[in-house]
Amino acid sequence: MTRIDIPADSLFGVENLPYGVFATRDNTLPRVGVRVADYVVDLAAGLGDDVFAQPSLNPFMAQGATSWDKTRARIRELVTGDLAEGTVFAIGDVTMHLPIEVADYVDFYASEHHASNLGRLFRPESDPLLPNWKHLPVGYHGRSSTVVVSGTDIIRPNGQRKGPNDPAPVFGPTVRLDVEAELGFIVGVGSRMGEAIAPDEFAQHCFGAVILNDWSARDIQAWEYVPLGPNLGKSFATSISAWVVPLAALEDARVPTPVQDPEPLPYLRGEEAWGLDIQLEIEWNGQAVSHPPYAPMYWSPAQMLAHTTVNGAATRTGDLFGSGTISGPERDQCGAFIELTCGGKEPVTVNGEKRTFLEDGDEIIITATAPGPGGARIGFGEVAGRVVPARKG
Ligand code: CA
């Protein structure tokens, strides 16, 4: 038997208990575990429950909120007691897998600072915010098959681009590869076609949150996005962190959203339309270059899910929706390099070099933490990715 020593300042104390899918050298079958301090506890072995002897969290998520709450209480008891041999692994001895089987993937655009900054860069001649922006959470459908777990290499995408002064489009590797620091929210229990999820029903449907990096090829995006929105400039890769922080762990992080003026339509209102006080950090080749705050995000996660379903669209276990790039009001709070460098005109210094967009070999690590009970912090872990050269087009 063994006991886990949980330091008081651990980002993975008993108030967090994020879920992930892991494998070990001696047992390469991916299965569900929970992170505690610098250890992973095998839940199939520890709780003797086959719902965790699965390569994704989907079967457990589908059980619903009552089961999530009961299981969380059982896990807290498990990890603070004596654990049998073979149920606990050091974090350095496990390989992490994609934690969920991603169903549909939608990405929103919920930061007013980001939407305004991008509006100024992409449409300098008009109002930065389009007329719909304060009436509904704007979003687009992304590609779920290219959602990958933290640590997966990102192949520089090929595509069409056409600069304002180019006479015709050219084809080749993107020269403006960028990141977007976001949170991703995961649907545990879906909704039938024809059924809308009100903001106050959010906790019955949303299982938890991850850090998300929406890799973006700005030159491909700028040429293709009119009039139907992002497509190949985004669909080549989206990375998520390996640990899913349960919604229950984020109760102390709840904050009001900024004042929403004009008042949203009734289907977007509710007591549960809170925001989250989550602090992110972006590291570029080991150097922290930005600290985006989640708290000023205009639209709340519950409003994004309510909007997704208000037309009767169905949702499923494993649906993932991104918040959109998280940017605060200051330059060093921007969640994308296109903003951080003013469209590439004002480079930032990374390890002594002037940089704008990503080069082959660059590594990006995004981390996030939130307040927990009694001054504790809740950690999300990280979402990491390294850029590797484009395939021959
Ligand atoms: Ca995005």
Supply the key terms.
393 residues, 8-stranded mixed β-sheet, binds calcium ion, alpha+beta, 5-stranded antiparallel β-sheet, 9 helices, Fumarylacetoacetate hydrolase, domain 2, SH3 type barrels
Name the ligand types. Answer: calcium ion
What's the tally of helices? Answer: 9
User: Cα-atom Rg, whole angstroms?
Assistant: 21 Å
Major sheet attributes? 8 strands, mixed
> Mind telling me the CATH class of the largest domain?
Alpha Beta
Low-confidence stretches: none
Q: What would the principal axes of the Cα set say about the shape? A: globular
Question: What name does the CATH topology of the largest domain carry?
Answer: Fumarylacetoacetate hydrolase, domain 2
Terminal CA distance reads 55 Å
The proportion of strand residues reads 25-35%
Mean pLDDT: 97
Q: How many strands in all?
A: 26
Number of domains: 2
The portion of residues assigned to helices is: 10-25%
CATH superfamily of the largest domain: Fumarylacetoacetase-like, C-terminal domain
Briefly characterize the structure.
The protein has 9 helices and 26 strands. The protein has 393 residues and is an alpha+beta fold. The structure holds calcium ion.
